[in-house]
Amino acid sequence: MEKDFDFGRVGKRMPYRVPDGFFDEMEANIRREVLQRPARPARQRVVGRRAAIWIAAVAATLTLLFVLNLPTGEERTVAFRDVEQAFANLSDDDRAYLLDVYSEDIFMNE
User: What DSSP assignment string belongs to 8-71?
Assistant: First the structure.
């Protein structure tokens, strides 16, 4: 490859050549192939669209359920004594770590 290639010398001419009638022949070949394929029946297209709509609706519903995390009807309240009991069941090192983390929390100390 030349190191001092100048794009300015190329001008507006095409860098490749095709035989005469190439694009007309290609268009005719494509048209022939498309016309030879059997068309899908209209009913099959409708069923495919309906299936796609149902799949999209189910996916949207599942997404909303996961994103919104809708309540399932059973709400559990935690009493303060349950928290105290869980804290009492921790080891001394775990309790010290939690107290250290909570004492540095800027939102809890406001």
Answer: GGTTTS-S----TTHHHHHHHHHHHHHHHSPPPPHHHHHHHHHHHHHHHHHHHHHHHHHHHT--
Tens digits of per-residue pLDDT, 40-62? 776 767 778 888 999 999 999 88
CB burial of 46-65 (b: ≥16 within 10 Å; e: otherwise) equals eeeeeeeeeeeeeeeeeeee
Radius of gyration of the chain (CA): 36
**CA–CA separation, 110 vs 97, rounded Å?**
20
Two structure tokens written together for 11: 């001008």
Q: Residue written as tokens 């494509």?
A: 30
Question: What is the rounded CA–CA span in Å between residue 22 and residue 16?
Answer: 13
Whether the Cβ atoms of residue 108 and residue 102 lie closer than 8 Å to each other: yes
Distance separating alpha carbons of residues 34 and 36, to the nearest angstrom: 5
pTM of the entire predicted model:
0.29
Tens of pLDDT, residues 73-82: 676 777 888 8
Tokens of 64: 């909303």
